[in-house]
Design brief:
The chain is of the alpha/beta class. The protein is built from 14 helices and 13 strands. Helix content is 49%, strand content 14%. The strands form 4 sheets. A 6-stranded mixed β-sheet has the order 3-4-2-1-5-6, sandwiched between helices. It has a 3-stranded antiparallel β-sheet with strand order 10-9-12. A two-stranded antiparallel sheet has the order 7-8.
Length: 471
């Protein structure tokens, strides 16, 4: 959100909601003690319950968008979001108290607290919106006053965006351009004040909060004076970073040795969520190992009895950021099967760079079974433990297949950690064309979330059992 006031108000509301929650909890116990004649727990217990309650409640209020903004949310919408967050949090609290066999809070206290908490959180928003926010915005005295450098389409688009998104109001004082012939024109209701060489005069004579650059990158060299003038007079200077017409998921400014570096990221993934994904992978793998290891032992014995050669097949695959790693699989083919690909290229039944033959003569008897059930992939759990793969992600491809890529977008799959299963696994597997396979991988990357990973894992089991598309 560009509006700094909204960010500031959001932080204040978060702190205020925490205080209101503590107050509601103490008040609920007080009402229960004086009117219902129930025992009143000590302050220590109230504080402990508050901490256990506020952690999930604060999270779900954020998660459900309770701090999105005063103008964005209507009171009924906000009340519904608070009700959801409160209901889930109270459920977590009741579960913990039950597991700990703690009975110092009665049902009546929970009901009284829920009523007070919901009234307090919604009531404070009503007061802020109808009394303070509406009066503050309608006056217009403290609107953010902005000068835009530029008069083209990008400048007009910026003005429309500011008017639409600025909760606390914005006043476009005017525009400056590098050419004088546009002076006097109006853009989105505000005048073109003149050329950029008048910036110092305008900053001196008027109240200006920010100057925003919205010109093509070819004109950047002409604006050094604008930056200097803003620095001299302590006015915030911003510039539109969409100069290269890139479709990026996230832009952020990082600093290296006092050097500001603008970062464009085509794939935006929260570091916190990635850590949770990693911990989830490890937890699930270690929980299932006691069941999977005996199965792997039986498969190993079957492979050794069926055909000569090693139990495992190790192949170099292309992983995260095109780093090569050794992928582990149970051997399902005869020895040196990979060296026969060149002589069998004419038999390839798959489109694109991948190599697939429905009745591949290189596959052993045991290999057909473990491929049909995808049990040949089980050793990749060790790749997950080593951090080379995840449980869910685009399948890692061989160097041979990657060398045959003919489109740049195909390499976007290397921006995330490869996985054992993905959308393709639950959508037909080898029956899919290469283009559809790629499309599903890109869809996963662009829409990745922890809940999507969980959905794919839950759908993978029946897909593997049916064996549809497996070769």
């Amino acid at each position: 959100m560009y509006d700094e006031k909204s960010k500031y108000i959001g932080k204040l509301l978060y702190l205020l909601d925490g205080l209101l929650t503590l107050f509601a909890l103490i008040l609920a116990n007080w009402v229960s003690y004086y009117f219902l004649k129930q025992d009143n727990p000590e302050l220590f217990y109230n504080l402990a319950v508050f901490i256990v309650l506020w952690v999930p409640l604060g999270y779900f209020l954020f998660r459900f968008g309770a701090y999105d903004g005063l103008r964005i949310l209507s009171l009924p919408t906000f009340a519904w979001r608070v009700s959801k967050a409160l209901g889930i949090s109270l459920g977590i609290l009741v579960t913990l108290l039950f597991l700990l066999n703690a009975n110092f809070l009665s049902r009546s206290v929970f009901m009284i607290f829920a009523a007070i908490e919901l009234t307090a959180l919604v009531g404070i928003r009503a007061i802020l919106y109808w009394w303070y926010f509406q009066r503050f915005v309608q006056k217009g005295e403290n609107y953010l006053k902005v000068v835009i450098i530029g008069t083209g389409d990008r400048a007009a688009r910026l003005a429309r965006g500011l008017h639409k998104k600025m909760e606390w109001g914005v006043h476009i004082v005017g525009y400056l351009d590098t050419e004088d012939d546009k002076t006097g024109r109006e853009i989105e209701g505000s005048p073109v004040l003149g050329t950029v060489d008048k910036i110092s005069e305008i900053l001196t004579s008027q109240v200006i909060d920010e100057v925003i650059m919205a010109v093509p990158r070819s004109m950047i060299s002409d604006l050094e004076g604008v930056v200097s003038a803003c620095e001299e007079q302590g006015v915030t200077f911003r510039w539109m970073a969409d100069m290269f017409d890139l479709r990026v998921a996230r832009m952020r400014l990082v600093q290296c040795c006092d050097i500001p570096i603008l970062t464009f990221e085509p794939v935006a993934q929260s570091e916190t969520k990635l850590l949770v994904k990693r911990m989830f992978d490890l937890l699930l793998v270690f929980l299932t190992l006691p069941i999977i290891l005996p199965v792997m032992l039986l498969i190993s014995i079957a492979i050794k009895l069926d055909s000569p050669g090693p139990v495992f097949f190790v192949q170099k695959r292309v992983g995260l950021n095109k780093r090569i790693f050794p992928l582990l699989k149970f051997r399902s083919m005869y020895i040196d099967a990979d060296k026969k690909i060149k002589s069998m290229e004419h038999l390839n039944e798959a489109d694109g760079p991948i190599f697939k033959i429905k009745n591949d003569p290189r596959i052993t008897r045991v290999g057909k079974l473990i491929r049909k059930t995808s049990m040949d992939e089980l050793p990749q759990l060790f790749n997950v433990i080593r951090g080379q793969m995840s449980l869910v992600g685009p399948r890692p491809m061989s160097i041979r297949d990657v060398d045959l890529f003919d489109k740049g977008i195909q390499r976007k799959r290397f921006s995330v950690l490869p996985g054992i299963t993905c959308i393709w696994q639950v959508s037909g597997r080898s029956n899919l064309s290469f283009e559809k396979w790629l499309e599903l991988d890109i869809e996963y990357i662009d829409n990745w979330s922890l809940s999507l990973d969980l959905q794919i894992l839950l759908k993978t089991v029946p897909a593997v059992v049916r064996g549809n598309g497996a070769t």
